[in-house]
Amino acid sequence: MTIPNAAELAAISLRENGIPRDLAARVVAAPQECDLEILDAAYRVRRETFGHGVRLHVLLNAKMGGCSEDCGFCSQSARAVGETNVPPRPLLDGDAIVDAARRAHDAGAYKFCIVTATRGPSDRDLDALCPAVERIKREIPVGICCSLGILTEQRAKRLAASGVDRFNHNLETSESRYEEVCTTHTWRDRVETVKMARAAGMEACCGGILGLETNDDDILDLAYSLRELDVESIPLNFLDPRPGTARTDAIAPTPRRCIRTLAVFRLIHPRRDIRAAGGREVNLRSMQSMALYAANSIFTEGYLTTAGNRHDVDLQMIADAGFHLERWSDRAHDPAEHACGVRG
Ligand code: SF4
Questions:
Q1: Which atom of ligand 1 is nearest to the CA of 304?
Q2: Is 343 within the bounds of a domain?
Q3: Residue 76 lies inside a defined structural domain of this protein
Q4: pTM of full prediction above 0.90
């Protein structure tokens, strides 16, 4: 099966605002000798739309464990068992959240991501979170993303009014695969929350996990669902099966598959913030820096329940590969940047 060369692939992606599905399917299935051609195409697009900037995102697990939901990959579900099951810890107070935002900024963060392990935020959660967000907005030049589960219209409006820039809620996998991953809420529930967040005035961050799929169609279904939702930011996580979760039998994706999928996502979403997200260190291993040629963003300083690279290690990787750090405060000085953080 032949595919267009790198220059042609990049031109199609930029001209059509994403390659069409039949071409994406050919790219996904292309033989190993096409790896560098495909990454070159993704890099040409990334260079055109995001230059060489890299956005660091730092996570705060603000309310841990004991979640009522049964997402099969998650060690924060109350149904997870074994040594990696995360014991519940209540919501951090406002000072702790603001301090964490300051540390994230000092580590180079473009965005500070506040996460709670909940089906959705309670009004009491928001009574604590919203004033903390307001303080961060006043005191620290960093973007704020919240990932709190399923929203109602009124709660989405409250978060947006407090200054939350972006709301994360991942689709995780394709609609057809989802009920094998989670039974306590539906894929459509997730879509509704993404729409609600955007309707309230926040950007949408929405991605998934490579490794939950049964075939390439699942991955492409996910990628094109995200395109239909027109989300601003796409975190691509790489499954790192946690002992005690329902997904311990899953086979983690190889480094080459991770890079190929990031490249295909870039070609489908030329102007969207694409993040090489959770599981990067474990799954990409020695190929981590290659991710930067397709993705314009990474998490640093670890994840919700697992460790990751320290920020100094990631800063060195970024510099070694010829990229540079992009800061939230750079936005004000970049007239080419649209409100959604994407150069047009
Ligand atoms: S809703 Fe979030 S925290 Fe809860 S089980 Fe699912 S992924 Fe884990």
A1: 3
A2: no
A3: yes
A4: yes
